[in-house]
Amino acid sequence: MNKILQSGTDGNITVTNDGATILKSVPLDNPAAKILVNISKVQDDEVGDGTTSVTVLAGELLREAERLVNAKTHPQVIIDGYRIASKAALQALESAAVDNSARLEAFRTDLFNIARTTLSSKVLSQDKDYFANLAVDAVLRLKGSTNLENIQVIKKVGGKLTDSYLDEGFILDKKIGTNCPKRVENAKILIGNTSMDTDKIKIFGAQVKVDSTGKLADLERAEREKMKAKVQRIKSHGINTFVNRQLIYNYPESLFAEAGITSIEHADFEGVERLALVTGGEIASTFENPDQVKLGECDLIEEIMIGEDTLIKFSGVKAGEACTIVLRGATSQMIDEAERSLHDALSVLSQTVKETRTVLGGGCAETLMAKAVDAEARKTAGKKAIATEAFAKALLQMPTILADNAGYDSAELVAKLRAKHYDGDNKAGLDMVKGEVGDMKELGVTESYKLKKQVVSSASEATEMLLRVDTILRAAPRQREDLETPEDEVAEEKPSKVGNPFAALGAEEDNNSEDEEEEGEEEEDASTLTPTAPAAKKKNKNKKKKKSKGVQQAASAQPPQQPVDDKTYTSNRQAKLARKKQRGLNEIDQALQELNIKYPEQQQTTQTSDTKQNSTISTLKAFLGIDPKQLDASAEMKKMFGAKVVSSATSMNSYGMGRQGRNQRAQAAFMKAMPRSHLAKYKPTWPPPTVAKLDGIGMRTLTLDEMKDWRVRHNLDDSFNLGGSGNSGDGNWWTFVHEPQYKSVQRQFLDATGSFDPNTLMALLQVYPYHVDTLNQVSEVFRMQGDNSNASDFTERVLFAIERAFPTNFNVLSGQCRLDFDRVENRSIWLALTRLINHLCMKGCWRTAFEYAKLMLSLDPLTDPYGALNWIDFLAVKAGQHDWIIRLAKEWPYNNTTNSGVVDCAILPGVAYAKALAVYYKEKPSKQLDETVRAFEEAISEHPIVLEQLRDNGLITLSQSRNEKLNQTIKANEEHYAKHAGAYHARNIALAKVYYAHSHPLYRDPNIPLQEIINRAIDNLEMTREEQVKKAEQNIIRKSLKVYKFPENVARHVIINNLTDAKQDIPQVFSEGDAFDPVRPSTSASGYNDAYFTGVRTRGGPSDSAGPAAGGIMSFIESLLRGEFNVNDLGRMDPNMRVVLEDQINELQQAGMGGMPGGFGEDEPSEESESEEESDTEQSDPSLVERMSRMIGLNRGNDNDDNVD
């Protein structure tokens, strides 16, 4: 019976009953089973058939051996008995073999019968006579050679199986070039492997700068002349046909046509090799010495039609044994199985031509050998006789299984067969047509002697090898403390102090540091997880030395404990966690849990109704939830380098040393009053946090109408789950809201950026120290100057300021809160997160960077505007989050979506290769590479361009055959995309370069056997060029890639991260915009335009807003300088503006004794200067803030100071 094999990756199916094909496709973990698979492969390589027979016989021998071992028979005794039986069986087989090679007609009949017998169990069994004759004719043309390369097999869907035929020429599945002669007699053929596409200028990593189009034309002209000279050298060989393994572009093809030379392009490597073999030519790559090149010859080259396809036929080739078998059939699966069946027959026949002896089939040979083994057993003394008899029983299982598969009574038929043989009828076998015992010679059931001999030898040797094994030693996986604990919650091991390269910088660390207390808590918690933890614990966490000493004494005083096995420990650990969880439940939670236990059917009904709509939400929550402990880069650095080093480095922050003296003490008070911040912690070098209220910035959720508009802009229907909370998945989508006073500052910021003067930005920042876009812009200025420390500092201040605007129900760490990137107010947080990830990577804080990348992705996981996934595929592996990236590749809720605007992890090259690396690191402890190779196979098959990047940059080296396979077969899908979906092809190239730019350090690890993995992966890829093209075409149709547009998020990621190599593949339409908003989205719903500034006070007139007046102190000062306000008329000031000024002046007075917000502090005064200052207080001039407060009437009680200087 046939088996259907379905691929787990692309869903391709294979229908076959070929044992070797089935065993190669089934993943196995059992080492004994792998040995059986290996002997089937050897059988297939040596003979070409009998793969199922050798596996079945080995299995029966092992079954009999198991029975003897259970009966207390030593394995060595069984091995000795099997050796005796194997020798007797092979002698009996050899004595029964017949050689008819001296008589050609009889030998041809033997070959025909062997082919019929081989095809009897195949898909061609109904037409076995037809295909047996075809196979015999093809093999006899080889004239005793076993080189099947001379037999070309062409598969063409259409017609029926009996439409297949044998052609006495060589057929190449290609077309003759345009305008070239279609028929060539007495052909002189030059077979080349050379590039014929340099008539176009291609720039990969190089740049050509010209100052006029004329010079560009000169370059193209030079390339054309170079190609023309190359064609001339090819013509000098005196040929009339040129076959090239690579492409021939239009210009060289036209030159060949003008010279009357037939050109054939893109002949695959296998076709070129066979063509050179049958025509007697050689493959040439250079053409400077025509006398050293051997040309191929044939009588005629012409185009023929098979079905609806045009092919090229080479007749009268120099190697007369060459021929072509054209297979026809209704489906591709049918033709593929017919090819496998015919290949088995051809292989067996070619081996029979070499080893001409034959034996009878139908169970006759096995029964004959079993009879001889039984006779030998009666002569053998001791327990070896029992093993010898067991070997005979295993041999008799072969005709038994044959009868069972045919649906007959195997017990009766095999008993009759044995009786016939013991009566002296050595030609008796099973007639599966009539269901009885018959004469195999008369029925023509013949098999190859070499095949039967190989089956018995391989099966007995494999059985002997396995019988010598008494134990399987397998490397144990890393013991996990709790199987239910997520990977992120597993406590990380603290690095050894000996390995700290900075230990010499300080002998002791600050015992009062908060971070050391946290580390002490982690150590104490970790100690409770070990099965042999001491009973006594020290409570003083600050004094580490005393604590560790006390723990050691307690451990030494503790009596030795018995080791705890894994099962007991795991169950104890789970019980402990359950009790802890139960203690954390309040009474209501416990009551609900009890109701759920008592009435599970109601709970199940509710869960079933909500499963479909909540599956996407729950999956995203599981992927994108953030652990706040992992957002602290300083804590990660302390684990790597030690707290002493990090603390000293932090104290030497380069920008601004903070206020001194009294202001420093005020800042310490502010630090204690600061609310908890997750995205960035407040630093003392920043301006006082009281001015960080971000007046004018708020947040609100999007309305249903706005969400409908979002769906329309992104071409998503109502059934598409947007991954937010709520029943429809549209909830929890937010947007920032800018009030008029903030918009006024934003106008000043735009004016400052238009001046192209960084000093203007710094001046604006002194007044508004927490304006988001200004901070982002200043951060970029410092980065361009090479000051990454200050650039990172300003980026963190951006996130600190943004987080102060979050409402209480906007939990950015939950993984469920979304922001609308189409609104300009929201884009600043993506820019800040991207720059922060870059800075964290420079510091080597991989886990922290990974968490921030997850956070950026969670803000919009559908479109991923800044390409967070292009960071995650690198950071997940670097941070050791292997399970996470493997699950992402498989379980991302938007995988295989047909909407090209939604992120599909299944088609991202970086995710595929990151998954393969993660599989390697998980498989590394077992020292096995099978799963790793399989993962790289999938990645290379789908995204071969990444492999090209690794090869071209010297990280791997491919042999010529593997290079040919990569370029001709594996890359066929990308070539198809390039012709029919150019934007998608460009996107694949850009993403491959992006992945290499980020992840190439991962492949430079000398501990990874990268070369071995890649070689095995390429060798294991069994695909044809047609399969790759078909798969690409299906993808084009499914995703409508012919109208696909280059993704904006890829262009945005490349530009903001300044990935030079990938910029070449970005369309020119994506020009770099403003530094604070690069690559504005085409679906943008707002921008800094007139509509945004509606209601904002302009510099030339009053506000048209009905809300509070905008501008504050700066607008007031500007109005004074322009003369728009009369000091005598201040009492009639706009009330709204007066309120704004009063609030800001009060804040200034409370924050810094009249100093400007964000300004540089004065030096800390000495005691002498302080005393002088106190004595001269009454004589000092009023401060700027005091003067302004008097001007607007805040200090009306002081009537003596009404005049303004």
TrEMBL record:
- Where is this chain's protein located in or outside the cell? Cytoplasm
Q: Which portions of the sequence form the region Disordered?
A: 478-585, 1150-1205
**Record's GO cellular component terms:** chaperonin-containing T-complex
Q: Does the keyword Heme apply?
A: no
Gene3D superfamilies, per database record: GroEL, GroEL-like equatorial domain, TCP-1-like chaperonin intermediate domain
> What top-level branch of life does the organism fall under?
Eukaryota
Residue ranges annotated as compositionally biased, kind Basic residues, are 536-549
MF terms from GO for this chain are:
ATP binding; ATP hydrolysis activity; ATP-dependent protein folding chaperone; unfolded protein binding
Q: Name one Pfam family in it.
A: Cpn60_TCP1
Family annotation (InterPro entries): Chap_CCT_beta (IPR012716), Chaperone_TCP-1 (IPR017998), Chaperonin_TCP-1_CS (IPR002194), Cpn60/GroEL/TCP-1 (IPR002423), GroEL-like_apical_dom_sf (IPR027409), GROEL-like_equatorial_sf (IPR027413), TCF25/Rqc1 (IPR006994), TCP-1-like_intermed_sf (IPR027410)
Residues forming coiled coils: none
Q: Which NCBIfam families match?
A: chap_CCT_beta
- Record's family? Belongs to the TCP-1 chaperonin family.
User: What is the official name of this protein in its record?
Assistant: CCT-beta
Annotated source species: Wallemia mellicola
